[in-house]
Specification:
Structural class: mainly alpha
Shape: globular
Number of domains: 1
Order of helices and strands: HHHHHHHHHHHHHEEHH
Number of helices: 15
Number of strands: 2
Helix content: 40-55%
Radius of gyration: 24 Å
Strand order of the largest sheet: 1-2
């Protein structure tokens, strides 16, 4: 999904059909809250109990919307570019640049070099960029979601490491601050993991089908916003209704790989590849009228007609499954960070120093 923000569901449906570049984002706030809440419900009983305290659980749920709130300040282009491309990965563009999603490097800037070179070598595979729609210079890139998630995993693992050191040798204030940092990272990273459960965040067909369209899939720009929030609202989907289906979180395997790639990155990329496989099934549901969105048809006189369509069991199940999948993946990443975090040895050595009284230096007339 490129250079986009929130699409107001109140926008006229005809305007959406006209293809206006109204801002959208993946899952509206309610959907992102649900992903974080489902992840919390997946955690094992021995996970640090402070995250389940009501105020802390609410903080994690609230922070699910933080990266989208950063996108509200559209005039701050450095922030827009830095944050915006972390919300998606248009997987087809990797192949267009001659790259394989199953072998790309786990280091963000190493990948960026490879993609830039591949794009330059295959410019005929990419559409011409309209500068007027590319003020943040994001359209040259496919998105960086798996790298962002893996980096947040590293931040969370670090936070658990220094929490363990503070719990042994720190003050109550230091422990509380370390816990607050963990809540922040858990909540914010949940946004990106949730994004990648939404199939339209793993494809170039993010706002309607583009390019060759032999199956006649919808080119409706507003499909993205409908999946993000309109369908959820119409169906009345809640985390409480989905939570009983949550599978307890299991850690991601961190076995060393022969190709040297980071195992968490590989797991995240596999998760996104799995999401991308659902793009066509999602468009098939829309084509069959099973997503509950209105069908808008252009008339010969240039006007449009709107036909209301009911939400089906299949449409509701599709969205609930993806919210659940996002929550379970997020829970697995949280558990992996906690269990793999050894106490911060450097911090521990510094904390030990302050436990040892330093003898007073002898003066010139002492002794």
């Amino acid at each position: 999904m490129k250079n986009t923000h929130l699409l107001r569901l109140a926008a006229p449906i005809a305007a959406l059909w006209a293809g206006l570049a109204l801002p959208v984002r993946a899952w509206d706030y309610d959907g992102h809250r649900m992903v974080n809440q489902l992840a919390l419900s997946s955690l094992p009983a021995d996970f640090p109990a402070f995250v389940r305290e009501p105020a802390n659980a609410e903080r994690i749920a609230f922070l699910a919307g933080e990266p989208d709130r950063w996108r509200n300040v559209g005039s701050d282009l450095p922030l827009v570019q830095y944050n915006g491309m972390d919300h998606y990965l248009d997987l087809e563009e990797l192949a267009d640049a001659g790259l394989d999603a199953t072998t790309v490097p786990s280091l963000r800037y190493e990948f960026a070099l490879q993609f830039a070179a591949g794009r330059a070598a295959h410019l005929d595979h990419f559409p011409v960029i309209d500068p007027a729609k590319n003020t943040d210079h994001s359209r040259e890139w496919p998105g960086f979601a798996p790298w962002a998630i893996t980096e947040y995993y590293g931040k969370l693992k670090s936070a658990f490491s220094y929490l363990k050191a503070f719990q042994d040798l720190g003050t109550p204030e230091e422990i509380a601050n370390a816990q607050a940092n963990i809540l922040y990272v858990m909540g914010v990273m949940g946004h990106y993991v949730g994004d990648c459960a939404q199939p339209l965040h793993a494809t170039k067909h993010h706002h309607g089908w583009v390019g060759d369209n032999p199956n006649g899939y919808s080119t409706w720009y507003g499909i993205h916003a409908w999946i993000d929030g309109g369908l959820i609202a119409k169906a009345g989907i809640t985390s409480g209704a989905i939570a009983p289906k949550v599978v307890p979180a299991q850690p991601v395997s961190l076995a060393n790989r022969l190709d040297g790639r980071d195992p968490m990155f590989v797991a995240v990329m596999d998760y996104i590849i799995g999401t991308q496989k659902l793009v066509e099934p999602l468009y098939q549901l829309e084509k069959a009228g099973k997503l509950g969105n209105d069908k808008v048809t252009a008339t010969p006189d240039g006007k449009t007609t709107s036909e209301s369509r009911p939400l089906t069991v299949e449409g509701r199940a599709f969205i609930e499954t993806q919210l659940l999948r996002g929550g379970e993946m997020l829970g697995a990443i949280w558990v992996t960070a906690w269990r793999s975090a050894a106490p911060d040895t450097y911090l521990r050595s510094q904390l030990l120093k302050r436990q040892i009284p330093v003898p007073a230096k002898a003066g010139p007339y002492d002794g």
